[in-house]
């Protein structure tokens, strides 16, 4: 076990699977005193919480949370105050996707994606930042996507992830005077419950990133850990792409190879 987060209290949404679970595991390994693991998947939430509790000497509180519902956030923050008295790290990780073209995107699907990915992140910052302010320090990590850096084809998902990127910068400027840092992480194609159903698409994108493969959750989590720790004490309002160079020009490289100039 390490001690990069020794004594800190963390709150992770979407913690019952994928990057969220890997984040909670890594935080426990690095010495946090407690983790609030939030998700809507009750069975998985209980299983993951029990597993981490048994493996590490850390207090785990599982919270059933729909990030799009403000009443759920109010109740979750109340629990944090009662159980820990503070929160030092917030990871807004919960998210959903809907891969369709603009004209095929139904308004109810649009609204749901925006509600979870964008409004959920807004509510997390809105209600956790005041608690961090009481401590005079804190780190918020918002999980966006390469869709928040590019013109990715899924309209609702792309809009929500660009919004996460923008909100991160706005929050960083506002919360800086409270000692709170706010950054966004932009994963590329990572094997997770969101990407496994689109295996064929992911493998095609793998052909154009610099490393020619998809990532695994731990490779994203190491970046989240850095931003959560005091090692990143002078970093705020920025975005970190964890995408094997996909947004660095992978498509251009592929075309260059195909026409024989690379």
Layout of strands and helices, then pairs:
Elements: E1 9-13, H1 18-29, E2 34-39, H2 42-55, E3 59-64, H3 70-83, E4 89-92, H4 107-135, E5 138-143, H5 155-175, E6 180-187, H6 199-206, H7 217-228, E7 239-242, H8 250-258
Parallel strand pairs: 1-2, 1-4, 2-3, 4-5, 5-6, 6-7
Helix pairs in contact: 1-7, 3-4, 4-5
Rg from alpha-carbon coordinates: 18 Å
Question: What is the CATH C-level name?
Answer: Alpha Beta
Can you tell me the overall shape?
globular
Percent of sequence in beta strands:
5-15%
What is the CATH H-level superfamily? NAD(P)-binding Rossmann-like Domain
Instruction: Measure the end-to-end span.
Output: 45 Å
What is the residue-mean pLDDT, rounded to a whole number? 93
Major sheet characteristics: 7 strands, parallel
Can you describe what's shown?
- The mean pLDDT is 93.
- The chain has eight helices and seven strands, in the order E-H-E-H-E-H-E-H-E-H-E-H-H-E-H.
- The N and C termini lie far apart (45 Å).
- Helix 1 crosses helix 7, helix 3 packs parallel to helix 4 (107-135) and helix 4 packs parallel to helix 5 (155-175).
- It has a seven-stranded parallel sheet, sandwiched between helices.
- 44% of the residues are buried.
- The protein is α/β, with parallel strands linked by helices and 262 residues long.
- Helix 2 (42-55) links the parallel strand 2 (34-39) and strand 3.
- The chain is globular.
- It has a single domain (9-199, 211-247), classed as NAD(P)-binding Rossmann-like Domain (Rossmann fold), CATH 3.40.50.
